[in-house]
């Protein structure tokens, strides 16, 4: 009888030890554990990223940590998406860039660009770069080892409750294992951009009657020149990040019956920002989110 009791007691102790070990493992989950559980591959949603100097490890695309020890408020980091894949560090492996969000229970939701570099064991996260608070993400693209992130934001004088309407494109690359800002690969200046159409937010689409009749060319010295279906024109432009505006516009004085020049120049004078889309088309956004002009 005593022998049976001893066997039962030992069995209970073994079960308790197993449960304790499982609990310890659960709360000390690491990338090495992920590597073993996934058969030798760490997914980008389970990697560790450096966000504002703090190491954040995602598990299934989510991380929850206390804002302060003992605090009921948590800093929640989530995988958002907008994935793009391509080689970012020249090692021939396909890396991934995507967006993360982070909030601490307040009204703000901060968006970050994150990069996971492909290794033999799966993905290894690097530092993330903040894009903005409560922006409206559009696309993330990788070409020639560089990342383009397109999103909408607010003007500097707008309150946070305003809807994001200003188009923004930002460019990044990986240097020595770090995600850093980069210049636009496709230059905005010193090339002829041909007007394709203007799309207004009332669903009106204006297309040039004469193909290739309208163009603009922005020079490095801050000047602009171009042509319409009737006259040549010139002026100045101001470019601050993705904010773009034209001023001091003048032109030759020919009159052309049925010309679309007035429509074209009116829209051009109301441009406030630009971005270059995934098809390498130049998009000029008209003030008050009333429409866009497309060039190629």
Layout of secondary structure:
Elements: H1 2-27, H2 31-37, E1 48-51, E2 54-57, E3 62-66, E4 74-86, E5 95-103, E6 110-119, E7 122-125, E8 129-133, E9 136-143, E10 146-153, E11 166-175, E12 178-181, E13 193-200, E14 205-206, E15 215-218, E16 223-227, E17 232-240, E18 243-251, H3 261-269, E19 271-276, E20 282-286, E21 291-295
Describe the structure.
The protein has 296 residues and is mainly beta. The protein is 14% helix and 46% strand. It has helices at residues 2-27, 31-37, 261-269; strands at residues 48-51, 54-57, 62-66, 74-86, 95-103, 110-119, 122-125, 129-133, 136-143, 146-153, 166-175, 178-181, 193-200, 205-206, 215-218, 223-227, 232-240, 243-251, 271-276, 282-286, 291-295. The longest helix is centred in the N-terminal third of the chain and has 26 residues, at 2-27.
Short recap of the structure:
This protein is mainly beta and 296 residues long. 14% of the residues lie in helices and 46% in strands.
Helix content percent band: 10-25%
What structural category characterises the helix and strand content?
A: mainly beta
Query: What is the number of helices?
Result: 3
- What percent strand? over 45%
From the alpha carbons, calculate the radius of gyration and give it in angstroms.
Answer: 27 Å
Straight-line distance between termini: 90 Å
């Amino acid at each position: 009888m005593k022998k049976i009791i001893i066997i039962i007691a030992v069995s209970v102790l073994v079960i308790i030890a197993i449960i304790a070990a499982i609990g310890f493992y659960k709360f000390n989950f690491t990338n090495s554990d992920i590597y073993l559980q996934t058969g030798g591959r760490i997914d980008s949603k389970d990697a560790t990223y450096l966000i504002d100097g703090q190491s954040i490890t995602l598990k299934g695309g989510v991380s929850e940590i206390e804002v302060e020890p003992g605090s009921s408020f948590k800093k929640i980091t989530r995988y958002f998406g907008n994935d793009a894949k391509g080689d970012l560090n020249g090692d021939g492996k396909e890396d991934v860039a995507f967006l993360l969000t982070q909030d601490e229970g307040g009204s703000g939701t901060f968006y970050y660009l994150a990069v996971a570099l492909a290794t033999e064991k799966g993905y290894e996260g690097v530092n993330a770069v903040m894009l903005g608070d409560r922006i409206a993400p559009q696309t993330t693209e990788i070409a020639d080892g560089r990342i383009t992130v397109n999103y909408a934001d607010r003007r500097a004088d707008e309150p946070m409750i305003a809807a994001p309407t200003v188009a923004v494109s930002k460019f990044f690359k990986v240097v020595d294992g770090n995600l850093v800002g980069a210049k636009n690969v496709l230059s905005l200046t010193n090339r002829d951009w041909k007007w394709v159409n203007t799309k207004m937010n009332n669903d009106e689409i204006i297309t040039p009657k004469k193909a290739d009749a309208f163009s603009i060319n922005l020079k490095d010295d801050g000047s602009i020149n171009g042509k319409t279906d009737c006259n040549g024109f010139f002026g100045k432009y101001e470019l601050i990040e993705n904010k773009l505006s034209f001023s001091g516009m003048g032109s030759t004085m020919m009159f052309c019956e049925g010309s679309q020049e007035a429509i074209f120049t009116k829209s051009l004078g109301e441009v406030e920002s630009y971005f270059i889309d995934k098809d390498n088309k130049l998009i000029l956004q008209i003030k008050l989110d009333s429409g866009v002009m497309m060039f190629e």
